[in-house]
Amino acid sequence: MHEGRIFSFSVDRVRFPDGRLADLEMIRHPGASAVVPFLDPPSTPDPRILLIRQYRYAAGGTIYEIPAGIPDGPNEAWDACALRELEEETGYRAGGLQYLTEVYTTPGFTDEVIRLYAAWDLERGTTGHDHDEFIDVVTVRFSEALALIRGAELVDVKSVAALLFAAMFFREAGRASP
Q: Does residue 11 lie in a domain region?
């Protein structure tokens, strides 16, 4: 029904497991990568991380997020996408990157999957914001990011999932590489 710059919209005829047919609205999305950038080694008791505050029209203003974005084309690897978006949005390059998990953002109406990563050994690079990106980079302690989630100040689902995953299974379990 609609083919946009980033996603497409259709109404699909679907057969449910019980055999009934129905029309469902569907948003097709190419997927994305997102990364939790650690300024300090992830194994540090309360490492500093980078968040971005980005204007989001759909959210009604500026929200906290981790760097993320869609691939530059069908052949860009998900880890390369994460590294590129990290530098474009924060101005930092990573020396280390580890895949964490992937999440469906809203499987009730879209096939969007975001691959989540952690990055460390950051060094200064160059930002490259898109024309529609209005971004401020913010340095916070990991505990502060978790407090932002707890206080409903950080509500972006990919960021919430990545930070909580990093807290539960990456940092606390001792699986942080550095």
A: no
